[in-house]
Amino acid sequence: MELLKEKILKEGTVGESGILKVDSFLNHQLDIQFLNEIGKEFKELFSDKKITKILTIEASGIAIASIAAQYFNVPVVFAKKTESKNLDKETYDSDVYSFTKGKTYKIKVSKKYIQANDKVLILDDFLANGYAALGLINIVEKAGGSVEGVGIVIEKGFQEGGKRLRESGVNLKSLVTIESLENNTIKFK
Amino acid sequence: MELLKEKILKEGTVGESGILKVDSFLNHQLDIQFLNEIGKEFKELFSDKKITKILTIEASGIAIASIAAQYFNVPVVFAKKTESKNLDKETYDSDVYSFTKGKTYKIKVSKKYIQANDKVLILDDFLANGYAALGLINIVEKAGGSVEGVGIVIEKGFQEGGKRLRESGVNLKSLVTIESLENNTIKFK
Fold first, then answer.
1. Which stretches of A46-130 are DSSP H helices?
2. Structural domain for B115, as ranges
3. Which residues form the Phosphoribosyltransferase domain (chains A, B) (predicted)?
């Protein structure tokens, strides 16, 4: 997605320990007009799939999924990372290893909101090691639903997530793939 | 907002310790079509204000703010509750007391994304004791911006937040106000 590459080159910065910062439009401040372009692109990439629900993970995925859902005309469900009094007791859980935090956390989705007849599109902002996406796929499988695709805004091509998901047969599409962030320079694949 | 009252009566449940659960459309699963109705309503309620930015707090506020922002044509900023490697070092912070969790947590917004010339609309899903809203107001004030209004989807009228905010001169508008949840019955004001 050319528009996204331009946006990343214009507004993105490479922070410490090779982190790509896009918090001016995707992670902290949200450029809603631009997220609409992202939503349209996801709709186009997955136009051959009949989607009944979009699944994402709090917090950064929520804006992307919500705006994109308008083009699919389906509800969004976001997996919870934190304990919440509001969450049902009956949940599908999955363990997700966070590389940056060096620990495993649990993600949860109420059994009410992913069903066996659901055809799910998983959307998220970043794909690095792929553990969050695998956790979400695991939850859909536990519910007996089908994962029709995984849509990622920015794939870090130099990490293992993309390979890991594609090799396990996931219909993964990333809007842009970063080849390298070496020498603080953003290089696309 | 009549449509919202109907939705709450149809889908909402009263859980343990007087918690109103609306996770079928607002807190966990997100009814995006319905959130568009909420967004339009906020636009109407604050149509006399010139807004440059919508501020909310992760995670439940993000979907509401993102969809509503389409009617205001402005970016969203969401305050972070959790430490994040992606967050700038230069932040405006505020302490928020969580009644349900019985402890104080810090919310943070990068100094880049709220500026002295910003006219901010604060949006959130619930107003109970008002501490989250006061924390967000505090952050806008630290940045030298002005709070043009606070829009809340569901105000718990039997808790102190609404009174607290209105008495301090905040332009607070809630789409619905719950008068009581006694005997597991939802009663609107």
1. 60-72
2. 2-188
3. 33-155
